[in-house]
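Incident review: delayed structure delivery

Summary: a single-chain prediction request sat in the queue longer than the usual turnaround. Root cause was a stuck worker, restarted by the on-call engineer. No data loss occurred. The affected request and its eventual output are reproduced below so the record is complete for anyone auditing the incident later.

Affected input:
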Amino acid sequence: MKFGVLGSGMVGSAIAGKLVSRGHEVRMGSRTAANEKAAAWVSSAGKGASQGTFADAAAFGEIVFNCTSGAGSLDALKSAGAQNLLGKVLVDVANPLDFSKGMPPTLFVSNEDSLAERIQAALPDTNVVKALNTINANVMVNPGRVPGETDVFVCGNDAGAKAQVIRILKQDFGWTTVIDLGDLTAARGTESYLHLWLRLMGSLKTADFNVKVVH
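Output delivered after worker restart:
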């Protein structure tokens, strides 16, 4: 399968690298076609890896991952082009973190809205699925870094799009339990969880942790 990954940071590199290692073709998108981080990733990832602009990656991918910073996601997706994302599944991994007042960051959208919903409103003909935003980049693609079986969450308005994402999470990323939280308004909850996640990281002195829902 062909994937587009928007973003050349830690999250984008982890997801793109995992997908290439599973035999998929991945194009990493950045603001410029010659982005140095993307070039370094292509060099290290090898066969199946390529780079380009946000628009190049969006056009290339059958499924596209938004791994840009939350504050820049809407601008990045505007650059990617609605036509290039038409009818596709967009997996939104970003969080609406505002670092303008230092650490810990606040959320620039919450409660009655979410970044995922804003992305869906901007791209009404794209099937946005929120996933993986409650976990560190390394754990996203290797859940075994955390002892025992833990959970990952998805939400979105289209059942078929969620089914595709769940299949990727299980078959390619190695997740056993994927909890479907319902429509995209559930992203308000998973994005707000970052308040707790950041405090846990500070207390535990590691980002290699996750949650398990027991009922």
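Verification: The chain has one domain: 2-204.
Action items: add queue-age alerting; document worker restart procedure.
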